[in-house]
Amino acid sequence: MTAPAYDDGNIFARILRGEIPSHRVYEDEATVAFMDVMPQGPGHLLVVPKAASRNLLDADPAVLAGLLPVVQKLARAAKAAFAADGVTVLQFNEGAAGQTVFHLHIHVIPRHEGVPLVAHSGAMEKPEVLAENAAKVRAALAAL
Ligand code: 5GP
């Protein structure tokens, strides 16, 4: 079945336009990163290209080529910020695969030995905790 067209009313498009708030940790000409409001672990980030696409399947390869180095940078910062043992990088394509927001994004989740991931799109985190975690990531980015 053909996927629906990109809809610029999706929540990440609205965050990118500044219509709704987010805890931003990074921005360049092509990419923004902010805290996931329903983190699967402390420090869960979303790395979001500014260019419009639903997901990996309809994205411009040039956008994808620019995206992975930013994911790497944020994965390194998140690992340092949370003294993590590892980092899980996830990306879902269409509802059947678990995607819930239809603007391409990459999940970056710091991980500690023996600590399982919280459920995807589970509980909302407190804004003050998200703000504190965002500050940790910004500090780690500055120290890279
Ligand atoms: P997906 O299932 O599409 O890969 O993931 C979407 C992610 O966006 C989920 O992890 C969910 O917690 C997160 N999310 C949903 N709504 C918002 C929001 O309004 N702001 C932020 N920062 N994250 C959101």
From TrEMBL:
Residues 11-118 form the HIT domain. It holds the Pfam family HIT. CDD domains: HINT_subgroup. GO terms for molecular function: catalytic activity. A motif (Histidine triad motif) lies at residues 103-107. GO terms for biological process: nucleotide metabolic process. InterPro entries: HINT (IPR039384), Histidine_triad_HIT (IPR001310), HIT-like (IPR011146), HIT-like_sf (IPR036265). The active site is at 105 (tele-amp-histidine intermediate). This is Histidine triad (HIT) family protein. Signal peptide: none annotated. It comes from Prosthecomicrobium pneumaticum. It comes from the Bacteria.
